[in-house]
Structures are given as structure tokens and as C-alpha cells.
């Protein structure tokens, strides 16, 4: 019976990933990241993604702080934060976030504050969506691992 639960969870995970790829949320870089995970580092992907989210929170705060400053004029500094966000998003396969960063950078290079604010709102929305979907995915993965582990008999 437990095997069915494991297979159902695996199928649910595959469906969620297929949806994220179909929506353009993720790209093939995420698959490459998954290939680096093995028995010696079973939590590799979730650890990398958690680091990404931790660092991204700081970058989003910095970007928002810069744009909300009425005296703001340092588009070069903002560009540095955007480039960091774009690079880390690319490294985990966050395609839609990376694409928003490209538009954000273009607005920044044109010193377009209104365009930057719109891009930041999109970025924050997409960031929350991705974070929620990864949370869902990693919860299923933990449940699958627990269900798979429950099949082994307890040794005395």
C-alpha cells in the first residue's frame, strides 16, 4: 500500500514540474540542478533553492528601498542588484524571474523609474509564485521520502 503513496507523490511532483515548465516558470537549468542531487546529497536542490530565496529576499528589499527613496538617482547601484538577481535566478532555472530582470535592467539603464517600479512589482509577484510552488514541491518530496522510508522494517 505504501508504494502506491510514493508513486502518487512522485506523479504529483512530476505534474507540478511539468506545469512550471509549461508556464515558462522554469527552464532546463533546473533539470541540470536536479541532476547534481544524489544519495550523498539528497537535499541538494532544496538547499540551493533555499539559499537562492534567502539571498533574493535581501535583493528585493534593497531594490524596493532604492526605488522608494524620493532622492533616488543611483541606477547603476540598482543595476548591480538586478544583475545579481538575474544571475542567481538563471542558476536555478527561474526563467520568468530572469526575464523580468532583463526588462527591469532595461528600464534601469534608461533611468525609467516608473518602468523600474512596474518591473519590481512583477518581480515580487513572480518571486512569491515561485517560492510557493517550490515550497509545495519540496513538501511533496519530503512526504515521498518519508513514505519510501516507511517501507523498511524496523530492526531490533
Molecular structure report:
With 156 residues, the protein is mainly alpha-helical. It is 79% helix and 0% strand. Helix 3 runs antiparallel to helix 4 and helix 5 runs antiparallel to helix 6. The longest helix has 37 residues.
List keywords for this structure.
about 160 residues, disordered C terminus, mainly alpha, about 0% strand
Terminal CA distance reads 23 Å
Number of strands: 0
Quote the average pLDDT.
90
Major sheet, described briefly? Answer: none
Which structural class do the helices and strands define?
mainly alpha
Order of helices and strands: HHHHHH
Name the helicity range. Answer: over 70%
- pLDDT below 50 for ≥5 consecutive residues: which ranges? 150-156
Continuous helix count: 6
Residue fraction in strands: under 5%
Radius of gyration: 19 Å
* C-alpha geometry: elongated
Sequence-ordered SSE layout with sheet pairings:
Blueprint: H1 2-22, H2 28-35, H3 44-68, H4 75-92, H5 95-109, H6 113-149
Helix pairs in contact: 1-6, 3-4, 3-6, 4-5, 5-6
Short summary:
By secondary structure, this protein is mainly α. 79% of the residues lie in helices and 0% in strands. It starts with a helix and ends in a 7-residue tail after the last helix.
